[in-house]
Predict the 3D structure of the following.
Amino acid sequence: MELAKALIVIGAVLIAAGLIWLAAGRLGLGHLPGDIVIERGNFRLYLPLGTSLSIGVVFMLIF
């Protein structure tokens, strides 16, 4: 029974994370100034520095 409850909680957390990810994309997170994208041929490097800084500031203010 404990394993079943844990799997349900993990599934709910993953669904919530997916919904937050979709909402964040629609709000423009991930394409902020300071985010670095390097594309060369089949290689793509994405460093979300501006997004990480913004999320960090929000969490700092919350806590």
